[in-house]
Amino acid sequence: MIKNSKSLTLDNVDKSLLRALQSDGRLSNVQLARKISLSPPATHSRLKRIAKDGYIRQYTAVVDREKAGYDLLCFIHIAMQMHQYEQVDKFRKLIQKLPEVLECHHITGEYDYLLKVVLRNRKDLERFVVDRLTPIPGVSRIHTSLVFTEVKSTTALPLE
User: Fold this and answer.
1) Which tens digits make up the pLDDT trace of 34-67?
2) All domains of the chain, ordered by start, with CATH?
3) Cβ neighbours, 10 Å, residue 120
């Protein structure tokens, strides 16, 4: 069983429900009920509880970035000069406003942050690094890696 911080548990039916939704978030309640072998009212009740308990953050469409014109996928490591609260807070707020940044993680090791960024081309990458990241107060080093091929990309958690 999976437990969250509130010690609420997911049983096997709950996990089956979440796996089905991760696979296809557009399933109707009736289709979902059929997939997990439960009645539609019981499925709806479980889904409401799971959502209320915070297991489902949002429903969304996963857009193909290349078809949308974003040819570059980059991972950008950021090192900060100092780790003062004001500087870190300002950095985080600025990063959250950048639409090109899909993910930002505070990490251990040589760098402080890892960004997952999408851009249309090399010129956009140059502008992003030079005009948007470099001027952020406290940024001391920026290391960019370009992705050649996405071998695996998923949002589905391995609920077992």
Assistant:
1) 999 999 999 999 999 999 999 999 999 999 999 9
2) 7-52 (1.10.10.10), 72-146 (3.30.70.920)
3) 14
